Amino acid sequence: MPSEGRCWETLQALRSSDKGRLCYDRDWLLRGEDVLQECMSLPKLSSYSGWVVDHVLPHIQKNAPPSETSASSVSTSALNQPSSVPRSPLRNPAFSPVSSAISNGTKDKHESPHTEPMVLQSPRGMKVEGCIRMYELVHRMKGAEGLRQWQEEQEKKVRALSEMASEQLKRFDERKELKHHKEFQDLREVMEKSSREALGQQEKLKAEHRHRAKILNLKLREAEQQRLKQEEQERLRKEEGQARLRGLYALQEEVLHLSQQLDASDQHRDLLQVDLSAFRTRGNQLCSLVSGIIRSSSENGFPTVEDQAVAEGALQEMRDLLSNLRQEIGRACEEKRRRDEEEARIKQQESQMQQRPEAHKESPIPNQGPGAKPNEDLQVKVQDSTMQWYQQLQEASSRCVLAFEGLSSSRDSQVGGTGVGHSLGSKLKEIFDKIHSLLSGKAVQSGGRSVSVTLNPQALDFVQYKLAEKFVKQGEEEVASHHEAAFPIAVVASGIWELHPRVGALILAHLHKKCPYSVPFYPAFKEGMALEDYQRMLGYQVKDSKVEQQDNFLKRMSGMIRLYAAIIQLRWPYGNRQETHPHGLNHGWRWLAQILNMEPLSDVTATLLFDFLEVCGNALMKQYQVQFWKMILLIKEDYFPRIEAITSSGQMGSFIRLKQFLEKCLQRREIPVPKGFLTSSFWRS
């Protein structure tokens, strides 16, 4: 309304006036001031009376009870007197807000059941009271408006806080749910991990169980194969033993027959006046030797290859003995005939001298020559028994070559071919098993194909010959360059020799042919023999009429002697320990004794003695003990001067090396273990 704007302008003007800036104390009546002074004066209407009459009284009359209406009408009529109540200049629309506020206030007052009757005051009091009421009304309105706005703000804040709390609660629930999900996920991952670990452990245990079962099966299979192999070996050993025993019986029969022939020649003793007791005594000794071999073989089960070789040697010696006896009887007969002729000639000369005494001279005496001193020198020729053994091995080798002659000249020569291999160390057992399987008739893989000696009847002879040749060639080449390689090669050769004796005999045949000093045998130069052939017999390699250098020759001989010295002392560790070595240390002792009974060769004897004693000396020392040291002293005191006498100044290296080695061993009273000797740690690796 337009009056409301004027009301606020009026209130603002009053607030800015001097009186409006005065402090108003509502409790001024209580302080007892003399404020009733104006009441003493005549009543005067205020300038605001018209506004009060226009805006307040009508509302009062409308809400007043009937009893009061009459009274108020009187007062109204009195107040409406134009002379006494002038028109208020404030009755304009500008005061409409205040009037509306006052009307609302008065309306509220009239609505209360205990509204006090309005008491008219003085104009100034009415004015003040009106201003006070308007200010209070405005203040209440502002307070109500402020309270309403504050309530709205608080409601907004409460709603915002409620929404924020709701959102935070949602976030809290989400975080809590996320945490629960994470914990559940972690728990599930832990359970899955534990399950995987348990499954992995279970699979690992299953794999270990399968592996152990596989190993056990392999061990059982190997044990079964070993048992079958031992049974087969035992069967073969019995068959070979029975064959050797039958051979020994045949040898004994022949020896006894030859002995009877020796006894039959005793009738010439008186006729020829020669002493044949030595032949008869030696024949009896040989018969006793063969009988002793058969007796010991019957006690031990079956004769060994060595027993058979000794018996064959005794038979050959008996044959030679009978041949020598016949030659001796022939020489005695020739001597008797010559003496008879000489006696006849002398008698004839004596008769002629008696006829011509002047021409008589002293009878001629046959030239006997100066008396010869007994030969104290060492022998150059090898013993007959050793030479026979050497010839038997070479004949066996030749028969083996003839057996597969057709195979070697055809394409089928590849059937028996296999390489021993140069790999040593941890692969020895694999190499040994492969060779043994091949020789036993089993199929093996070689060069990407399956090879078996059963595919051709001549293949076994071919394989045995080539295998023995391969072993000796490794000694000639590999051991000559690397001395430590002698022991791995020798242990495989010894094991094969023990299971397949023919291979061992062929190894000896090849070794003796390439290195005759391993017999020991010093080939003699025969009349009409070519020089190159004689050098080949001595072990030299001759190519295009050129003989190899002495250093290379000694190097090859050294390698083969070292291989031989290693073979006689080593045995295959996985073989049958109950059987004896097929070619043991007793053969090494025989070789050493025979070579010391022969005249030394310059540069050769010293080299071979050093190599043999360095490899095999420790084993011989443990086996023969005091006898061995006696042999060493014999070498030092008697044999060294002979070697030194034939050795030139440019060939003293091998002699000095041997001499220093033996002097050091005598000083320490011990032969050191050779370098590269196979110990138990070698097989564990």
Automatic annotation (TrEMBL):
Residues 206-242 form a coiled coil. InterPro entries: GLE1, GLE1-like_sf. One of its GO terms (molecular function) is phospholipid binding. Residues 64-78 have a biased composition (Low complexity). Residues 63-124, 334-376 are annotated as: Disordered. It is found in: Cytoplasm; Nucleus, Nuclear pore complex. The keyword Transport applies. Its main location: cytoplasm. The keyword Oxidoreductase does not apply. Residues 334-348 have a biased composition (Basic and acidic residues). GO terms for cellular component: cytoplasm; nuclear pore cytoplasmic filaments. GO terms for biological process: poly(A)+ mRNA export from nucleus; protein transport. Keywords: Coiled coil, Cytoplasm, mRNA transport, Nuclear pore complex, Nucleus, Protein transport, Translocation, Transport. Belongs to the GLE1 family. Required for the export of mRNAs containing poly(A) tails from the nucleus into the cytoplasm. May be involved in the terminal step of the mRNA transport through the nuclear pore complex (NPC). This is mRNA export factor GLE1. It comes from Capra hircus (Goat).
